[in-house]
Amino acid sequence: MDSRCIGLLIALFVLVVLSGLFSATETAYTSFSAVRMRRFAKNKKTARMAFRLSADYNRILTTLLIADNIVNIASATIGTLIFTSLLGAEIGPTVSTVVLTVVLLIFGEITPKILAKRVPETFARVAAYPLLVCTYLFLPLVWLFGLWKKFIFYLFGLGKKQPRLTEEE
User: Fold this and answer.
1) Exposed/middle/buried for 167, CB within 10 Å: 0-12, 13-18, 19+?
2) Residues with Cβ < 8 Å from 16, sequence gap 6 or more?
3) CB-based contacts of 128: which residues, under 8 Å, 6+ apart?
4) d(CA 47, CA 49)
5) Who has the most CB within 10 Å: 35, 72, 100, 110?
6) What is the pLDDT of residues 117-157, one digit of tens each?
7) How far apart, in whole angstroms, are the C-alpha atoms of residue 22 and residue 40?
8) Biggest alpha carbon–alpha carbon distance for the chain
9) Could you report the per-residue pLDDT of 11-56, keeping only the tens digit for each?
10) Containing H/E element for 25?
């Protein structure tokens, strides 16, 4: 294994960790108790930040989906480069697809989400600064997808706000 492969393996490891961070953050922000987070916010700056970020859930969700997709696609690309150089062009991409699917499911999706679901307030606080950085970093893309959402709502007549509870409910 040459130094190029080692560099790619390190990059792949970092990307899988980032995938886990983004997935866990998404789960934490959908799961945390607003009451508990308000209580933490009295003493902890990161809790105040997490609470403020959660106020615009669509923005943070879009940010996290963009970030997670970028790192997962980059992981797949790097995995293909690694396995193709190790196993050849015929079988390398197939092995890469299988291996990276399993690795990303276990370490980039399932395990981080299980952990974040268990302690959502703690994880939301830990992830507050990285999430804030990502919201600024991906602001142009989030804005663009916001326009796309408005267009889709307009196209399908979903622009009118629906009452949260109907009289019948």
Assistant:
1) exposed
2) 71, 75, 103, 104, 107, 108
3) 46, 47, 49, 50, 53
4) 5
5) 100
6) 999 999 999 999 999 999 999 999 999 999 999 999 999 98
7) 22
8) 68
9) 999 999 999 999 999 999 999 998 999 899 889 999 999 999 999 9
10) helix 3-31
In the chain, the amino acid numbered 24 is: A
Residue type, 144: L
Structure tokens at 2: 């040459």
Cα–Cα distance measured from residue 89 to residue 112, given in angstroms and rounded to the nearest whole number: 32
Half-sphere exposure of 35 (CA within 13 A, CB side): 0
Closest CA to 94 of 83, 105, 82: 83
- Numbers of helices and strands, H then E, in the chain: 9, 0
Q: What is the pLDDT of residues 62-90, one digit of tens each?
A: 999 999 999 999 999 999 999 999 999 99
Asked whether the beta carbons of 89 and 30 are under 8 A apart, the reply is no
Per the CB < 8 A criterion, the answer to whether 125 and 40 are in contact is yes
User: DSSP letter string over 94-127?
Assistant: HHHHHHHHHHIIIIIIIHHHHHHHHSHHHHHHHT
Q: Computed over its alpha carbons, how large is the radius of gyration of the chain? A: 20
